[in-house]
Amino acid sequence: PDEGSISLALARLEMDLGDFDGAVRYREQALAASRSPQDRFAVYGFDEALHYRQGRFDELEKDYERRVAAATEFMDPVNMMLILGRSDLLQYAPEAGREASALRELNRISEQASPPFDGLLAFAYLQIHQGLGNKDETRVWIDRLDTAIDALGFEILDFVVRLGNGRVAEMEGDCSEAIANYGRVVEINPSTRTPRVWIARCQLALGDPAAAETTLTEVLRVTPAFPKARYQLAIVYQAMGRTDEAIEQLRAALNIWKDADSEYIPAQEARARLVELEASL
Questions:
Q1: Residue 186 near residue 179 (C-beta atoms within 8 A)
Q2: Dihedral of alpha carbons 274, 275, 277, 281, sign
Q3: pLDDT of residue 78
Q4: Are 149 and 162 in contact (CB under 8 A)?
Q5: What is the pLDDT of residues 238-261, one digit of tens each?
Q6: Tens digits of per-residue pLDDT, 13-66?
């Protein structure tokens, strides 16, 4: 109980299994065991992951502020850009209609860095623009990130370029190319979840709902409380005419999102689809 990293690992397991109360209890243990700003930074990072999973952007803002405060105590500016630029609050801001405030924050951070280090924030910029469906802007930020990676030797971020290229291909209707890029990300990081959900979306678009179902059920086997996978699986089941199973998945996703902010778009879409399917019975 005095080792915060173990408590945080248990908190993440409980979150993935859907026991959010248990996750919070372990999180409290981890915070109580914190002895440094690095420890607190890790706890606040978990908070951000949990609240994003639940669609709670009001809480995400508080988590982000706490992470920034902890980071300034020990982290150099380059690492701050790398880590804070990947904040769930910033990169997924379009899901809650908060892209304007996220872009303002990114601009504020980038003003504190000179090239090529400011290019590290391209990760968040391209995530925001792909979330908005801005194909051309996504391309611009992919190129910016590519340049920064080459200049700084940060090949570890190559997977972000792959994600961006996949989204551009998908927006252009080339789902085969999108799957190839997403698949490479999965090869690099086998535990990743969102690219697998995007692969399933493309598999369905290519007319292979059975493959999409297999992809998503594998995600949910490892992470049952991943609402985006459940929502996408509901879409797959709807396309297959398996309405009862689609409704079951939507209800499961909305249970995870039961405390989501009212402006959280994925929860809005899931709720609307559930109403539509229930009315069709």
A1: no
A2: positive
A3: 80
A4: no
A5: 999 999 999 999 999 999 999 999
A6: 999 999 999 999 999 999 999 999 999 999 999 999 999 999 999 999 999 999
The DSSP result for 56-84, as a single string, is -HHHHHHHHHHHHHHHTTT--HHHHHHHH
Residue-level length of the chain: 281
Under a CB-based contact definition with an 8 Å cutoff, are residues 243 and 237 in contact?
yes
Q: Distance between alpha carbon 190 and the CA centroid of its chain, in Å?
A: 15
Among 58-67, 109-118, 179-188, the range scoring the smallest mean pLDDT is 109-118
User: Which pLDDT does position 190 carry in this prediction?
Assistant: 92
281 residue type, one letter: L
In the structure encoding, which two tokens stand for residue 128, read together? 């925001």
pLDDT band at 76; cut points 50, 70, 90: confident
What gap in Å lies between CA 48 and CA 45, rounded to an integer?
Answer: 5
Sign of CA dihedral 171, 87, 148, 193: negative
The answer to whether 28 and 20 have CB atoms below 8 angstroms apart is: no
Q: How far apart are CA 99 and CA 131, in angstroms?
A: 9
Query: Would you list the DSSP string of the chain?
Result: ---HHHHHHHHHHHHHHT-HHHHHHHHHHHHHT--SHHHHHHHHHHHHHHHHHTT-HHHHHHHHHHHHHHHTTT--HHHHHHHHTT-HHHHTGGGGT-HHHHHHHHHHHHTT--TTGGGGGHHHHHHHHHHHT-HHHHHHHHHHHHHHHHHHT-GGGHHHHHHHHHHHHHHTT-HHHHHHHHHHHHHH-TT--HHHHHHHHHHHHTT-HHHHHHHHHHHHHH-TT-HHHHHHHHHHHHHTT-HHHHHHHHHHHHHHTTT--TT-HHHHHHHHHHHHHHHH-
| Joined tokens for residue 172 | 């252009």
> What mean pLDDT is reported for the chain?
94
